[in-house]
Write a structure and sequence with these properties.
The chain is α+β, with helices and mostly antiparallel strands. The chain is 18% helix and 32% strand. The protein contains three helices and nine strands. The strands form two sheets. Strands 1, 2, 3, 4, 5, 8 and 9 form a seven-stranded mixed sheet that branches. A two-stranded antiparallel sheet has the order 6-7. Strand 4 and strand 5 form a beta hairpin. The longest helix has 13 residues. The termini are far apart.
Length: 173
């Protein structure tokens, strides 16, 4: 069986107080509708068999899933094997995105199952900025190493984070 590859982008920014914030997306569709913890992901998508420019795939998938262009030069984070066997190739960059403007492409699914009815669902139903401790609780367990790798690359010390109030979600808009 051939390995399945995805490519994606992890955006980050710093709050006014210097706290690291990570941009994560929540998958759409009925399966994910009531899931929150360990359900969020970096915006990513499948690399087609004939595609060799993984960073171009990551940018395209970000545009399709989030509805915004990547405006910064991306740096490679690495390739991360998921529990499913899929390999996620991740890039990172510092860019601000307003999560309220997320507009995802749609996919079709027979829903309810075996009903014969096809419905359209957004690939991403929402996105948000999370501080590092909260992102660790939100992101799919297989992608935890992606955000930990970024923290290491940035030399960010999460111990210096101020105690966040609320649920760790941030919106500066």
């Amino acid at each position: 069986m051939a390995k399945v590859h995805s490519a994606g982008v992890l955006l980050y920014k710093f709050s006014d107080s210097g706290e690291l914030l990570l941009f994560l997306a929540h998958p759409g569709g009925p399966y994910w509708a009531k899931k929150d913890e360990f359900s969020w992901s970096i915006p990513k998508g499948l690399v087609e068999e004939n595609e060799n420019d993984y960073v171009a795939v990551a940018k395209r998938e970000f545009k399709e899933e989030i509805g915004s262009e990547i405006e910064v030069e991306l740096q490679e984070l690495g390739a991360f094997k998921q529990p499913s066997g899929k390999v996620v190739h991740a890039w990172y960059g510092e860019q601000d995105i307003n999560p309220d403007t997320v507009e995802s492409n749609l996919f079709e699914l027979e829903w309810p199952p075996k009903s014969g009815n096809t419905q359209s669902f957004p690939e991403i139903d929402r996105a948000n900025w999370f501080n590092y401790p909260t992102a660790k609780k939100k992101i799919l367990k297989g992608q935890l190493l992606i955000i930990d790798t970024l923290v290491d690359i940035l030399g960010y010390n999460p111990e210096k984070d101020r105690e966040s109030s609320g649920d760790g979600q941030f919106s500066l808009f």
